[in-house]
């Protein structure tokens, strides 16, 4: 009898876990007044061709592939991180920040000469 109760309980729990999720409720769009629909030229959305200042630029695009690779090599040499951001696709600011962090990490007496730029 006890085994039947436990088996029934397990079946009910598993069946409940397999039940389909509820459908999300749809949200009705709200009407906007004509005052908010009229936008000035300053409020108009930018075209996709316009560069956004918030979009990060890769270091290779910013300073060129060769110079970016020099930064990446320095970053890999100095970074104490297990997964450092040392990649030419990242921003130069991010790579330089990691070099600065690595150059200031621990005993700095044996640091390479390029660390002087990040003091």
Walk me through the structure.
The protein is an all-alpha fold. It has a domain at 56-119. Helix content is 43%, strand content 0%. The chain contains 5 helices and no strands. α4 (65-78) packs parallel to α5 (92-103). The radius of gyration is 29 Å and the shape is elongated.
What is this entry, summarized?
The chain is mostly helical and 119 residues long. The chain has 5 helices and no strands.
Counted beta strands = 0
Helical amount among residues, as a percent range?
40-55%
- Estimate the global geometry from the Cα principal axes: elongated
State the separation between the terminal residues, measured CA to CA: 77 Å
User: Which parts are unreliable, with pLDDT below 50 for 5 consecutive residues or more?
Assistant: 32-41
- Rg over CA atoms: 29 Å
Strand content: under 5%
The largest sheet is: none
Oligomer: single chain
């Amino acid at each position: 009898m006890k085994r039947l109760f436990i088996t029934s309980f397990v079946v009910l729990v598993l069946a409940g876990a397999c039940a389909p999720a509820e459908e999300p409720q749809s949200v009705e769009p709200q009407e906007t007044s004509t005052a908010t629909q009229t936008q000035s030229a300053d409020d108009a959305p930018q075209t996709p061709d316009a560069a956004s200042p918030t979009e990060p630029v890769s270091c290779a695009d910013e300073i060129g592939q060769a110079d970016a690779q020099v930064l990446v090599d320095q970053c890999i040499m100095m970074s104490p991180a297990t997964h450092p951001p040392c990649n030419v696709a990242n921003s130069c600011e991010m790579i330089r920040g990691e070099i600065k962090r690595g150059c200031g990490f621990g005993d700095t007496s044996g640091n390479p000469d390029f660390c002087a730029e990040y003091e």
